[in-house]
Amino acid sequence: MRSPLVVFTTLIGLLVALPVLSVAANLFAGDTGATWSHLAATVLPEYIVNSLLLSVGVGLGVALVGVATAWLTSMTDFPGRRVFDWALLLPLAMPAYVMAYVYTDLLQFVGPLQTMLRETFGWGRGDYWFPEIRSLGGASLMFICVLYPYVYLLARTAFLERGSGTFEAARSLGLSSWQAFYRVSLPLARPALAAGVALVLMETLADYGTVAYFAVPTFTTGIYRAWFALGDRVAAAQLAGALLTFVLCLLALERISRGRARFHETGRRRSERRSLEGARAWLASLVCLLPLLLGFLLPGALLLRLTLAGGDSEFGLRYGVLAWNSLMVAGISAVLAVLLAVLLAYGLRLAQAQQSVQGVAWGAQFSRMANRIVGLGYAVPGSVIAVGVLIPVTRLDHWLASVWLDVSGQSPGLLLTGGVAALIYAYLARFLAIALHTVESGLLRVTPSMDAAAKSLGCAPGEALRRVHLPLLRGSLFSAGLLVFVDVMKELPATLVMRPFNFDTLATQTFTLASDERLAEASTAALAIVAVGLVPVFLLARQIAAGRDAKTAC
After folding, report:
1. Are 218 and 51 in contact (CB under 8 A)?
2. In terms of Cα–Cα distance, which of 336, 366, 511, 527 is closest to 434?
């Protein structure tokens, strides 16, 4: 007998995945053969090469920075460690396109840095070499600086939640700290690391503002050019399909390399942090300071300088409205995303458990398929998701209006697209993957024996979820909520397309001013995004600290 929760979560997953399916349906519209042949012969090779190089560079960069900082702050003690615990999350609040504008203004030929060098050493044009920031390498650096907290947050949660028995056993068998980390701790944290890198890669491949400003042709710039500049829906849909396939291949490679390995937490005892002394302590501080400096402190200081020098002349009550709009849609979206992610991930877990007991695979296959389609939504640009939402939601809106008119004799207007409901739906289709990957990685660390024990004690699936799994997932749930909240705060394309009339957010205000090269005025809204984003960062940091203290006491 199938669990109602499995059926319900499968339907919810398909509903959230509807915009992605709507975009995919356009793949079969029009003369697809001629369009695809033209793309393959002209721009597709360049899109593939640039997207692949960008993915490799950003993936390696965020994995290195995220794992190194997560291990140092969770397992060692050094000067400034308590500050770095939460401060390393701050770049999450810095939009990548704002970083691109700020660093271009700082590092370009007429910028303050090169101007100072020429004035100091008497150099002229051509007398010295300076790296070009508006390049593929520059774009990779921007993404690494603002996206490494995805890996840091999930890896740190994994390092804190895992038991220390295996690490200590490895040390007792003669392994050095590095060998125990590489052979024991890192494999145990692999699901969380894979989820973090996957989220970073999907965010990178779906970004438009940074790569467009740096003139780096990728799948996303091609989708925008085909859909909005050329009006070719078929070409845009095929490029979006190629992008989804690209991301799916990356995720499939990781799962294949993982094989049948499983990673569960088997202990709750925590050991004390190892104190670093001398050069090692200061090196650890430098390792944590460098990404924080490049990803938040330096661009934040430059934005603050621009704000104090000029700023937005309209700063005042209007920014209170913008902040409230941003907080409202981000908060609602984060709560709904976490709830749906728990249902989807736990529904798949139940379906797989039923498959192993009853031998019937269709429930697990449908749940897995719905979860994977939901996960792909993060790789689709926000504007394409918005168009995918508009097609079915507009039809539903007109149908509801006609039914209301027949019943009451009055037209209610557009109930969904006229308010924030459709906008939040677009956010869920775009960002539910963040919460889903985070919750799934947390569930993977809960051994299946917990489910069996709860079932033997008479707990129904819903009761087991409430009393067993949710307390164990508390850190992962807070992480998922924070990531969704901050991403919604920064989201631009979907907001610009789906927002109701006269509904602006801090993100739209920032982008509108920055795209007009009014960086001094845009700095005010950008700093407001950072200030609002600090609240969930501090809450999450407190939750992580409380969770670690509780485990230390066990």
Report:
1. yes
2. 336
Residue 163 is predicted with a pLDDT of 47
Parts of the chain with a pLDDT under 70: 1-3, 5-6, 23-24, 26-36, 161-180, 182, 184, 227-228, 231, 233-234, 244, 251, 254-272, 310-316, 354-364, 366, 379, 383, 411-415, 537-538, 540-554
Tokens describing residue 148: 């490494």
The residues, any chain, with a CB within 8 Å of residue 388's CB and separated by 6 or more, are 18, 19, 20, 21, 22, 23, 380, 429
- The SS3 assignment for 522 reads helix
According to DSSP, residue 26 is labeled G
> Could you tell me the residue range of the domain that residue 161 belongs to?
4-308+316-553
Beta bridge partner(s), residue 275: 77
Tokens for 411?
């037209």
The two tokens of residue 379 are 């790789």
Distance, CA of 97 to CA of 88 (rounded, Å): 19
**CA–CA separation, 341 vs 430, rounded Å?**
13
| pTM score of the predicted model | 0.77
What is the token pair recorded at 288?
Answer: 């944590």
CATH code, 463:
1.10.3720.10
Three-class DSSP category at 275: strand
Q: How many residues does the chain have?
A: 554
Q: Is the dihedral of CA 133, 134, 136, 138 positive or negative?
A: positive
Residue 544, both tokens: 């992580």
Q: In the prediction, which pLDDT does 321 show? A: 84
Total number of domains in the chain: 1
Residue type, 40: A
> Could you please report the per-residue DSSP string of 148-199?
HHHHHHHHHHHHHHS-SHHHHHHHHTT--HHHHIIIIIHHHTHHHHHHHHHH
Token pair, residue 29, equals 């519209």
Q: Which amino acid is it at 92?
A: L
Written as one string, the DSSP assignment of 44-101 is: HHHHHHHHHHHHHHHHHHHHHHHHHHHHHHHHEE-TTHHHHHHHTTGGGGS-HHHHHH
